[in-house]
Specification:
By secondary structure, the protein is an alpha+beta fold. It has four helices and six strands.
Length: 157
Amino acid sequence: MGTFAGPEEAQEFFESDRFATVNGMRINELTEDGCVCSMDIREDHRNGLGGVMGGVIFTLADFAFAVASNQIWQPTTGQTCSISYLNGVKGSRLLAEARCVKNGRGSCVINVDVRDDLDRHIAQFTGTGYKLPGQGNRPSCGGGRPDPKAFLDKRKA
């Protein structure tokens, strides 16, 4: 079972992500170890050449990464990421599908495929998330990070 009961609960949690919210990013689907997020392209998302700004594409991929990684373990923060831009956007909407490819004790790796609504493959993003110790975490995807304080206390006993 994931951290969030469904996309609505996850969207409510991420409302405080101002940049994603202001840019119209939404959580459409949520699975135990992944998600689909989307956004409509607006005129203010375009660069000087009229194409969609790379930062917009990156932000959507990063948002999907954040949703998926925090669905697996909360709280998780980004540790590293990379993105490859594959094609220009021709459609009017972007979709980012995130899926967990590795869920370790202290980190997870999430791949995010970004496509437009014409099914053009726009970008490939890979992110590594660091699982922070926290209260009330509910791990999924076959594992989770143990509480380091409990581990140290157990060793002292």
